[in-house]
């Protein structure tokens, strides 16, 4: 039996609860849930949070640590403060599963503390584990594939990918070589993406490249590089005057004034029979890791991507022509699927399957 405590019952947390309930897995049991305002510590039986207890993450973790069975905290937040608690949770013998990128892409000392804590036996002889497949590509097997490449002795040369579903959607619709696709202003595509819920409330949080940079950092660290956000080359594609406006509404109102800027970039790519894609790169040898707006020829797999899919290409000694993973890399259902898969991996290890 694996007892589960879930921190954050938003879209992803609620979807995870629904998936666990739907499968009726008797080996995974939710025994605690908490939001920022409410907390319940008991066998929830997937019931909604109805208790008015204020959140106390210390008490939450202590409750899980006392579990006679293996316990896991699933962090479904995007909080820096919660991520900083991972080492103490692991040291108490509680495993961690999360889609929260902050602990694995933030301060290098925190990342090392998480890795060290997960590598050692916790109190009472429990072996805590830390899984975060859904921090990159949601439910896509990106990190598990990379880990397998590393563990089997393959040498990673580069990792290149369209890691953001938002940026994938924007540039797949804006920059195309299809003669049947009418060119639309970049601002119009951003507006539609925002209305569809593909972007953050402030689209600059997608366009500034930081989300992709976090995923690049996570992949790079897993591959053996000590990458840090402060030293990565991150291309912010928001025009400089718009980086400083106060609100998202003001940004959206002024973005049409810069359609010519984006159109010029697109036309320059088209003249070379290429398209624009916003890409994350892990360069294992050349030191050129970062986030960039790059032109690709029509024959490249990145040029033919559809919708909001992610695509990641591993180039290694075993796979010199590239190993490609492609599919939906965002959304509550696929993110919860990635978390669920990690929980099953822990269950299999704990129960010796």
From TrEMBL:
Catalytic activity: L-homoserine + NADP(+) = L-aspartate 4-semialdehyde + NADPH + H(+)
Keyword ATP-binding: no
Keywords from the UniProt entry: Amino-acid biosynthesis, Methionine biosynthesis, NADP, Oxidoreductase, Threonine biosynthesis
Catalytic residue list: 215 (proton donor)
Residue intervals of the Homoserine dehydrogenase catalytic domain: 141-344
Gene3D superfamilies named in the record: Dihydrodipicolinate Reductase, domain 2, NAD(P)-binding Rossmann-like Domain
UniProt-listed InterPro entries: Asp/hSer_DH_NAD-bd (IPR005106), Bifunc_Aspkin/hSer_DH (IPR011147), HDH_cat (IPR001342), HDH_CS (IPR019811), HDH_short (IPR022697), NAD(P)-bd_dom_sf (IPR036291)
Record-listed E.C. numbers: 1.1.1.3
GO biological process, one term: methionine biosynthetic process
GO MF terms, alphabetically ordered: homoserine dehydrogenase activity; NADP binding
Pathway note: Amino-acid biosynthesis; L-threonine biosynthesis; L-threonine from L-aspartate: step 3/5; Amino-acid biosynthesis; L-methionine biosynthesis via de novo pathway; L-homoserine from L-aspartate: step 3/3
Record-listed L-homoserine binding positions: 200
Cofactor field: a metal cation
Domain Aspartate/homoserine dehydrogenase NAD-binding span(s) in chain numbering: 8-121
Binding positions (NADPH): 77, 101
Binding site residues for NADP(+): 8-13
PANTHER family named in the record: HOMOSERINE DEHYDROGENASE, PTHR43070
Function: Catalyzes the conversion of L-aspartate-beta-semialdehyde (L-Asa) to L-homoserine (L-Hse), the third step in the biosynthesis of amino acids that derive from aspartate (the aspartate family of amino acids), including methioinine and threonine, the latter of which is a precursor to isoleucine; production of homoserine leads to a branch-point in the pathway as it can either be O-phosphorylated for processing to threonine, or O-acylated for processing to methionine.
UniProt similarity note: Belongs to the homoserine dehydrogenase family.
Protein name: Homoserine dehydrogenase
Lineage: Eukaryota, Fungi, Fungi incertae sedis, Mucoromycota, Mucoromycotina
